[in-house]
Amino acid sequence: MKRQQTQKLAIAVITGAAALVVIPIVLVILYIVVQGIGALSWEFLTARPRNGMTEGGIMPAILGTLILTLGTAIVCLPLAIGAAIYLAEYAKDNRLTRWVRLAIVNLAGIPSIVYGLFGLGAFVLFLQFGTSILAGSLTLGIMTLPVVISTAEEAILSVPQEFRLVSQSLGATRWQTIRHQVLPHAMPGIITGIILGLSRAAGETAPILFTVAAFYLPSLPSSVSDQTMALPYHLYVITTQVPGMPLSVQYGTALVLLLLVLSLTLVATVIRTRMRRRRDW
Fold it and tell me: CATH number for the 59-277 domain, one of 1.10.443.10, 3.40.190.10, 1.10.3720.10, 1.20.58.1000?
């Protein structure tokens, strides 16, 4: 009887703690939706800003955010997944690899403003890429690396060791085992890490502030050497730097950014669920 009471009390405490976290988030999202839904229209999503950015749309900022997210993926994913495979499958468990893993965890916790200053010094000034899509993508890619490496490595390590032993006992090489047995089963976790990293990159302001973002551009970027507008920085500009900006435009921009990030998460959830259904364990 006492054990059942303790269990009920623990469930109640855990439920209350979860509610304290979830309810404020839901309320914030609902508030943004209510305040910003009126600004959403076809013109708002496809037109360029005009009249001091108080009218028109946010199409250049949406396009710039998508370009930077794609650039981040191109820079980050091959390096991150390759590093995760090496750490999980090839690296020996010694002091060096433990230090590397510790460094990766610490890098994931560094504030984004530090990555922005690093990108400014390394890519904008030292390598002379200037404030450009290339510099911004490299900065965001480096910032995203630790998150993707950590989650991808954990996903690879979660695959049962028996899969590797059976595959190699049938004559497969280590790489063939990784490619055909380990990676397919680890892919749901890897995709989760990728989307988490890209979602963070899509919503960051500080790194792009120093490396790529522009206050306003009359034309769309035509190469990786050009600057671009981006939703996070555009939201910062219209809320702090533009007098007389209608609140509906501010909340509408925030809602579009929120929907973009939630869409990435939803796509990852659907892909992950379908892949997990195909697993044999």
Answer: 1.10.3720.10
